């Protein structure tokens, strides 16, 4: 490996330039093609954009959360971006400098009210007519106005939320319920919960684990939720010293806990599978006595040890994801688990038609990962998750994407009757655009390209809000 003495995740514009300007542009110019008029809604993506120079070594995950929003209606597109004004962001905006060291530093020296800064930079979901920005380490969720991207404050659901919420919570589009989990380093190590569609009631129960774990995602079906206990987790001795360091325990199985949506702690049923790590699930559904899980499985989540590697190099090795499309079938009667690889391509950051979340679905749209020193998405892959078959659209030279979103057409006739949209950054020209692909004709490339008013750096996760939900049925 080439010796790296600087941090590409801080110095390269692709990964988040500091103090990026907050803009609102009402109508963006079309570079090529035509914006379809048979869909409307909002595409919102979260990600890190470090505002002040870091105190110490910087991890990409440490950057201040920023939302980039695209709003589509009547064949026109507008753009808005805004920082998420977390408690840490507001504190540093007064002092005009970084006050926290991040994952690569000793967090015991950080402000006592928040030892590790909750940047809320990881995921964004739409629940009860507002956005919620979420953090991968599990923290307070922030409520965001979906139209203005203004931070409205910490969301505690009228004081009923007694836990934190991890990044990859789910909203059931059919019921409006928010399903979430929380994890941490204190017994019982996990909490599971459901928030009603109107945000007025919260159901939560403890989930006892063998010890502290680092689950990143979950699945839901129509009647159940599936939680993860995976064998990649924090080194407890390092944690005592204020350091975050993970280890892969190959001798332990991966465990999936199936719990009824409004179940109690005693209702959970655990299943054991081959050891691995799972950053992101795709979908799950009930099929007779079985629950079918589809996700992106990492066989080797811990890179080989290299005594000469610097801390920056080691961080970069962990960020070089290598995941494959995978299935698991959990038999709730026999306890048997069947699993297998569906495709050997390295793809991740999957998205789907959210109307099918928790119900039997067929298609997923994953980012194709380039073999490079840093994490780069150089294309999109449309998967048939029943067969493992795929269709690819690869971006051009020096162009890199981010997590996409699936936008159904108005009065869609089937699951893939819609569009896939994503931000695209040209590293050579230092500019960004929005591209729209027809999901049914995925390999032909964009049917529209729209210029963005400023570069949009690579980020983490996104969501799609349908026009009916965002504008109302009559206006959509």
UniProtKB/TrEMBL annotation:
<feature type="binding site">
    <location>
        <position position="168"/>
    </location>
    <ligand>
        <name>Fe cation</name>
    </ligand>
</feature>
<keyword id="KW-0560">Oxidoreductase</keyword>
<protein>
    <submittedName>
        <fullName>Carotenoid cleavage dioxygenase</fullName>
    </submittedName>
</protein>
<feature type="binding site">
    <location>
        <position position="280"/>
    </location>
    <ligand>
        <name>Fe cation</name>
    </ligand>
</feature>
<comment type="similarity">
    <text>Belongs to the carotenoid oxygenase family.</text>
</comment>
<keyword id="KW-0223">Dioxygenase</keyword>
<dbReference type="GO" id="GO:0046872">
    <property type="term" value="F:metal ion binding"/>
</dbReference>
<dbReference type="GO" id="GO:0016121">
    <property type="term" value="P:carotene catabolic process"/>
</dbReference>
<keyword id="KW-0408">Iron</keyword>
<keyword id="KW-0479">Metal-binding</keyword>
<dbReference type="Pfam" id="PF03055">
    <property type="entry name" value="RPE65"/>
</dbReference>
<feature type="binding site">
    <location>
        <position position="461"/>
    </location>
    <ligand>
        <name>Fe cation</name>
    </ligand>
</feature>
<dbReference type="GO" id="GO:0010436">
    <property type="term" value="F:carotenoid dioxygenase activity"/>
</dbReference>
<feature type="binding site">
    <location>
        <position position="216"/>
    </location>
    <ligand>
        <name>Fe cation</name>
    </ligand>
</feature>
<dbReference type="InterPro" id="IPR004294">
    <property type="entry name" value="Carotenoid_Oase"/>
</dbReference>
